[in-house]
Amino acid sequence: MLSSGLPPLLLFLTALEPSWSLSDEEKQIILDGHNKYRSQVSPPAMDMLKMTWDTELEAFAQAYAEKCIWDHNKERGRRGENLFAMAPTLDLEFAVEDWNAEEKYYNLTTTTCVPGQMCGHYTQVVWASTHQIGCGSKFCEKIEGIETEDMYLLVCNYYPPGNMKGRKPYKEGPSCSQCPEGRVCVNSLCGKCSEAARIFPSNSMFSSLLPATALDIEELETNSDQTSMDQPTAGAPSTSLGLSLFLLPGVILVALLL
């Protein structure tokens, strides 16, 4: 018996338990990706807040990612949420890009989505009043709700949440023309002076691993309040799942809506 109170074999097995958490560089990639797409919305936004990383949201997202469940966290409360699953590697830059790519299906004027498509990831990414984000990831031998094995699960939580029914994600107009008091314009975003610098130290750029085969699985609904595209049932959130298979050198997309 060791001083830890664990038998030697059990202690050895515990040490081998695989773990996964985002590095500071990886967090910065996610944060920078969100702010990049927020600053590039078209038409431009009058009131788009600059996002910052929140460690409490990160811990919340990581705890849920550890469960390896392909469904929204029923205990997320007033937090937005985007999920992403990928194999055999996790390309964080691609994950945010993929969420933002739903922009082509979204009509800002009518706040509607093309029938049969998903827009909820995009609208959460560019929801103007959302200014905090925290994410967690986990390598899962098996994700509950997904048949494919050995995948990475990425969970991002947001505050305050976006996707409020009947509301536009942002106000169209000259960039930063309606920034809240105490905010300054930083790269077309309403940020604080202290937010102009990078939040996480970075000595090298994150490079994606070879995406020989990638399975990208998405969920439309991010909050208990729905966008007008979601058609919720009274008193309960509805969820729309989509699945797309991405293969190189060719690209094959297989969509599944439930």
Helix-strand layout with pairing:
Elements: H1 8-15, H2 24-39, E1 52-53, H3 55-65, E2 80-86, H4 92-100, E3 106-107, E4 112-113, H5 120-125, E5 132-142, E6 149-159, E7 184-186, E8 189-191, E9 213-219, E10 241-247
Parallel strand pairs: 1-5
Antiparallel strand pairs: 2-6, 3-4, 5-6, 7-8, 9-10
Helix pairs in contact: 2-4
Task: Tell me what you see in this structure.
With 258 residues, the chain is an alpha+beta fold. It has five helices and ten strands; from the N terminus they run ααβαβαββαββββββ. α2 runs parallel beside α4 (92-100). The protein is globular, with a radius of gyration of 19 Å. It starts with 7 loop residues before the first helix and ends in an 11-residue tail after the last strand. The model is unreliable at 6-18 and 196-258 (pLDDT under 50).
- What percent of residues are in strands? 15-25%
Q: Compute the separation of the termini in Å.
A: 52 Å
* Low-confidence parts: 6-18, 196-258
The residue-averaged pLDDT reads 77
Any idea how many domains? 1
Subcellular location: Secreted
GO molecular function, one term: peptidase inhibitor activity
InterPro entries: Allrgn_V5/Tpx1_CS (IPR018244), CAP_dom (IPR014044), CAP_sf (IPR035940), CRISP-related (IPR001283)
Protein name: Peptidase inhibitor 16
